[in-house]
Write a structure and sequence with these properties.
Length: about 425
């Protein structure tokens, strides 16, 4: 069925707003939909898909849009919509526009300049090419510009992975076990899971496989004292709590009241009662100091550029700047250093990000080791062997969408040496 011609104007309107990059694209879209309550779910889906497609392919589409007659923004919108639903499904196109879309569809994108094909800003593209070479960067960019599948984590307190697979099949939702995370499921077609009884009962949570692995390498055990220092809405907190079998004490720190508030209903669904959310003013808050030297395991899932999550948040690559990343580096160093004080002798400290950049990853880990003689690195290959995760890594965990089909993640594991060492 053809879409009503009005969808073009509506998409163009919200696209203009999104491309101002004054806030995250998903927030702008939600606000737009709230302000336009008459839009049906199909229209909303199409508009969102068109906007996300445009953000993923912005460089290529801008160049195509500039090639035709008429306003560029309308042409960008048509490209996004044609990508989302196919040009044949669009009502209200002029003859000229129909022909132009057909011509553009014939262009061999392999002939475009490499940075344009990568659809990455120049500063990021150049940084990645300098490190990984052009071919690897193009492969990475291709994976980052492809929408992610939907990954779920089974809450082992409530169900076994096999049971969940069987229940989902009745829906019918087909999924497969994730290759590395023992409780993960991957759904290729993305159904809405929020209304499923499995979700409402807390048997499943939405969580990328990479994020599940980051929680797993903390190695939290029954009865331990654990801190999730940057808990946010608690994606990893919930995974840690289940690994601890709902025993011990798991502190969920964050500076954002709004994010911690989102953790509460998730805690209630999960059946976990070992989690203690704590709002802190900053990383040196007195609430942190009180626990110094008492904690078995600390996870620092640090605030970062988020460039590893472009499959889900394609606007991030256009909103990030090298200057913002330098500021972030200072924050990451400060948070890691403060969180380290919590770790008891022999305890584990994990630093993780969803960034692809060395300066947010290895550089922070190396600097930490150079300035904290009482900590040493636990090579990631040892941690993965301990956790029986079948991944080949050297010192650090480095997950990328083109190699591991997860979001981009980095992690380093440190241990606090016994004082005699
Ligand atoms: C990558 S996000 C965490 C995501 C979360 N762990 C999850 O799995 O869903 C980083 C978090 O760090 C928090 N944050 C920023 N500055 C902080 C600080 N100084 N101390 C603690 N948390 C901080 C942010 O509010 C944000 O929620």
């Amino acid at each position: 069925m053809r879409l009503p011609p009005a969808i073009i104007g509506l998409t163009e309107e919200v696209l203009r707003e999104v491309l101002r990059f004054t806030g995250p694209a998903d927030v702008t879209l939600s606000r737009y939909f709230r302000d336009h309550p008459k839009l049906g779910s199909r229209e909303r889906g199409v508009i969102a898909e068109a906007v996300y497609g445009l953000l993923r392919n912005k460089l290529v589409y801008t160049s195509f849009a500039e090639s035709g007659n008429g306003p560029t923004m309308r042409r960008m919108t048509l490209l996004g919509l044609a990508d989302a639903v196919g040009a044949d499904s669009l009502g209200g196109l002029s003859e000229d526009e129909t022909e132009w879309l057909a011509r553009v569809a014939e262009i061999d994108r392999r002939l475009l300049p490499a940075q344009m094909r990568a659809n990455l800003p120049a500063w990021l593209y150049e940084k990645l090419v300098a490190r990984d070479g052009e071919e690897n960067t193009l492969q990475l960019a291709d994976a980052l510009n492809t929408p992610a599948p939907l990954d779920l984590r089974v809450n082992s307190l409530k169900a076994a992975r096999e049971e969940v697979i069987a229940t989902l099949a009745e829906a019918p939702i087909l999924c497969e076990p994730t290759p590395y995370a023992p409780l993960g499921l991957r759904i290729i077609k993305k159904p809405s899971v929020q209304n499923l009884p499995l979700f409402k009962s807390g048997a499943i949570e939405v969580q990328d496989e990479g994020s599940q692995l980051l929680a797993q390498i903390v190695g939290a055990k029954r009865g331990e004292m654990v801190v999730d220092f940057c808990a946010g809405a608690g994606g990893k907190t919930l995974a840690l709590g289940a690994t601890m079998r709902n025993t011990g004490r798991l502190y969920a720190f964050d500076v954002s009241e709004k994010r911690l508030a989102k953790l509460k209903p998730r805690m209630a669904r999960s059946g976990l009662s070992n989690i203690h959310p704590v709002l802190i003013a900053h990383e040196n808050d007195a609430k942190v100091k009180r626990l110094a030297g008492k904690i078995d395991r600390v996870l620092v899932d640090a605030p970062c550029s988020g460039l590893g999550t472009l499959r889900r948040n394609p606007d991030v690559k256009w909103r990030q700047t090298p200057e913002a990343i330098i500021e972030m580096n200072a924050k990451q160093t400060a948070i890691l250093s403060s969180a380290a004080r919590l770790v008891k002798t022999g305890g584990r400290l994990v630093y993780g990000t969803c960034s692809l950049l060395d300066e947010e990853n290895e550089a922070i880990a190396t600097h930490f080791l150079a300035t904290h003689e009482d900590f040493s690195l636990v090579p990631m290959k040892d941690v993965l062997a301990e956790q029986k995760i079948a991944l080949e890594m050297d010192d650090y965990l480095k997950l990328t969408p083109h190699l591991h089909h997860t979001d981009g993640f980095f992690a380093a594991v440190f241990v606090r040496k016994p004082s005699s060492e």
